[in-house]
Predict the 3D structure of the following.
Amino acid sequence: MASRDARFDGRFVVAVTSTRVYCRPSCPSRTPKPENTRFFGLPAAAESAGFRACRRCRPDAAPASPEWNVRGDLAARALRLIAGGAVDKDGVAGLARRLAVSGRHLHRQLMAEVGAGPQALALHRRARTARLLIESSDLPLADVAFAAGYASVRQFNEGIRAAFGCPPGGLRRGRTTAAPSEGGELVLHVPYRAPLAVGALLDLLAADALPGVEEVTDRMYRRTLRAGEAVVSFPDPLDTPAATLRLSLDDLRDVGTAVQRCRELFDLDADPATIDAALGSLAHARPGLRVPGCADGFELAVRTVLGRARSAEFAAREGGIPDAETLSIHAGDATVRALARAVCDGALSLDRGADREATTEALRAIPGISPWAVATIAMRALGDPDAFPADDPRLRRAARRLGIAADKSELIGYAERWRPWRSYATMHLWAESE
Ligand SMILES: [Zn+2]
């Protein structure tokens, strides 16, 4: 904290008991006395302990804690599902059902692990979405309340005051950038931890982009979503590294989820300093390379099974990849049909809340899915940072070229040093093999 080191932003926050305010570790304000500080892993935990976000360093706007995306346990899965909007959609009971535990157990587990229960975490997400909309759009405040998921304007006012210590109108007056939103399009700024290998990441996305669904250029990515359209672009960073996200949504209530999908698609919560240090020389050519995620886990799985050419053909015919219900009946490909059935009957969930081990096991049991496809789905749909498709000839080719391994078993052995970041190592090797 004394060195104002921004690398620790998002990993924890510092609450000051004398002011009831919490800050990023790098806050430029005067460093508080040690006896007046309390540390929390997540902003939501500081908020549920009665602290509000500092207006100067905006700790709630830092990229989310990377730790929880790495872990595969119950608390981490719950946090990822809540970030995706699970509580707003299905309530705490629905979230608990999805995780196959009781609501009480889930609450206890989250309190013990992160210091905030599911309801408090959902409230924090709502306030964070609302602030994003207040500051980056010209939406009337009553519409912001509705879009962020508040049941009433009164709840909205109370929620914003509790989280930020001022009413919604105060946040709008205090915003530093004019909102360039126009014609129903929302323009939002989504922060990430530098560095970010933008070009290499967009190349990876371009390599299997679906014509008619996605478009990739050297600094921009556009795709249709079930809820509308998203365009993500990477302006040269000014003082803070952030992607620009333009959203056109049919229903504004989807904004929180759409922002989260885009964070996942570009892996914006990752901690490149830690990952690159672990990968060593492999990361030197492309510092900050991320593992691209996906906008929809089932769609990604179908595309991975079919391969690029057949996916493109299919998408051109159907106007995109149809949903699981349709494909469980009409898919011509037996593997895709089996995959769709497993998703429809609830045997398989292809999102960040899935149990990674059980899900990859279930995927392996579907006839016709290659180990390479399972690893790709684990990396991109489940967000597993440590999947490794050792069977992929591109990996072996890149490994030979870099002189790190001559064959598959040597590569598997060598890759041990990249744990728990072998998904990131895979991206570096893929980028190398292009
Ligand atoms: Zn501060």
Residues 44 and 124 are 6 Å apart (CA to CA). The longest helix spans residues 297-318.
